[in-house]
């Protein structure tokens, strides 16, 4: 595996300076779209209704049929006994202005769906690019070149290659990819085995949508920062923290799913923590409910959400605030969870948390946030890591 030449932490802390790349000083990448990151997703309730088109039981998890629509990756049993094609695709719009880091984020987000199934080795990636029509020749070459480099660097970090893709012109800038792996049966985690008594582990904090949008208020001088009486330094620190977090691969988290016998797992992206927890709970064989009792939130983002008019900005506290390249949400035994958390922090240098429990239910499967839920503010460690 080759390590990328550019430090994500150093680049995030330095900030993107367009003029250093031959672009106008006022160039803002996120102006090339009206939506950001995984916040572009069709609402979950609408998508579930549309999926009824597949009337053959599309959210399938079966030893013979594989895994179909509704979870993170499709798992297709191949004609070669014991082998499966595990495949996923993802695309969205830019949510940071540094095109190199946006490439890193995009690759991490695409790969995360494989990792959520316990598949830590990716055999191939494709790159999907929709180039905004308003980009002229110079800006186009700089932005797309930087994006491709970032995407490739995270592919290198994942031990895989980019061997194709598709590039078209679009009204907005669109970024994404496809990740594929041929995996033996024992390389794939069964994600439907959660049991009453299990605990829920989360490997990255939430609050990304709040961090990205509050930074945009600051950058574009919209007046919202002053209107809400927000701290500019804390906004910048949170944005730097979430940028590094979104670039980070969930690969080690995926490898440890096997070691610590995870019973169920998914990654947290556009539907938010509760949305993805609910999807996963509904896919379990046993009649269970996921109860979320703790919300690890990027430092200061809970204060911003509270200061917004409804006291729940971006639906942060109700668990549907969108995340991009978020962490893994895992159901496992309490004993294994403690060891999992210890080892993932040792490998990645960032913490993970037990955020809830799995309990039996006589009603419908699903997930809820406890009315007594606790907020855990997660401070950034990236400045210390750089030093």
TrEMBL record:
One biological process term in Gene Ontology: selenocysteine biosynthetic process
Keyword match ATP-binding: yes
Entry GO terms, CC: cytoplasm
Record keywords: ATP-binding, Kinase, Nucleotide-binding, Selenium, Transferase
Single annotated GO MF: ATP binding
CDD domains: SelD
Residue span, PurM-like C-terminal domain: 195-365
Superkingdom field: Eukaryota
Pfam families: AIRS, AIRS_C
PurM-like N-terminal domain boundaries: 72-169
Keyword check for Membrane: no
SUPFAM superfamilies the UniProt entry points to: PurM C-terminal domain-like, PurM N-terminal domain-like
NCBIfam families per UniProt: selD
Protein name: Selenide, water dikinase
Species of the source: Mesorhabditis spiculigera
């Amino acid at each position: 595996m080759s390590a990328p030449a550019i430090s994500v932490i150093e680049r995030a802390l330095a900030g993107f300076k367009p003029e250093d790349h031959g672009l106008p000083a006022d160039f803002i990448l996120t102006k090339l779209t009206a939506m950001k990151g995984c916040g572009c997703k069709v609402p979950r309730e609408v998508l579930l209704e549309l999926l009824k088109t597949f009337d053959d039981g599309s959210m399938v998890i079966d030893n013979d049929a594989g895994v179909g629509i509704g979870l993170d990756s499709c798992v297709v049993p191949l004609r070669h006994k014991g082998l499966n094609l595990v495949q996923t695709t993802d695309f969205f719009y830019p949510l940071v202005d540094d095109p190199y880091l946006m490439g890193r984020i995009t690759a991490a987000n695409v790969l995360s769906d494989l990792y959520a199934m316990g598949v830590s080795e990716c055999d191939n990636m494709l790159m999907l690019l929709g180039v905004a029509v308003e980009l002229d020749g110079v800006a186009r070459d700089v932005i797309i070149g930087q994006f491709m480099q970032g995407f490739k660097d995270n592919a290198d970090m994942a031990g895989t290659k980019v061997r194709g893709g598709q590039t078209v012109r679009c009204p907005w800038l669109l970024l994404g990819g496809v990740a594929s792996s041929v995996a033996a049966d024992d390389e794939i985690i069964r994600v439907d085995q959660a049991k009453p008594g299990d605990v829920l582990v989360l490997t990255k904090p939430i609050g990304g949508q709040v961090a990205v949008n509050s930074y945009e208020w600051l950058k574009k001088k919209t007046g919202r920062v002053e209107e809400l009486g927000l701290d500019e330094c804390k906004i910048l620190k949170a944005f730097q923290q979430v940028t590094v977090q979104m670039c980070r691969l969930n690969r080690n988290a995926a490898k440890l799913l096997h070691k610590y016998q995870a019973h169920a797992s998914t990654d947290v992206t556009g539907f938010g923590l509760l949305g993805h927890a609910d999807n996963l709970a509904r896919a379990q064989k046993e009649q269970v409910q996921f109860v979320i009792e703790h919300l690890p939130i990027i430092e200061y983002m809970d204060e911003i959400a509270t200061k917004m008019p409804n006291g729940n900005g971006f639906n942060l506290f109700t668990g549907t605030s969108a995340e991009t390249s978020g962490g893994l949400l895992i159901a496992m035994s309490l004993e294994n969870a403690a060891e999992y958390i210890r080892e993932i922090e040792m490998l990645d240098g960032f913490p993970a948390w037990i955020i809830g429990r799995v309990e039996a239910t006589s009603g419908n499967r699903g997930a809820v946030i406890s009315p007594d839920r606790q907020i855990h503010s997660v401070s950034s460690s990236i400045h210390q890591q750089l030093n």
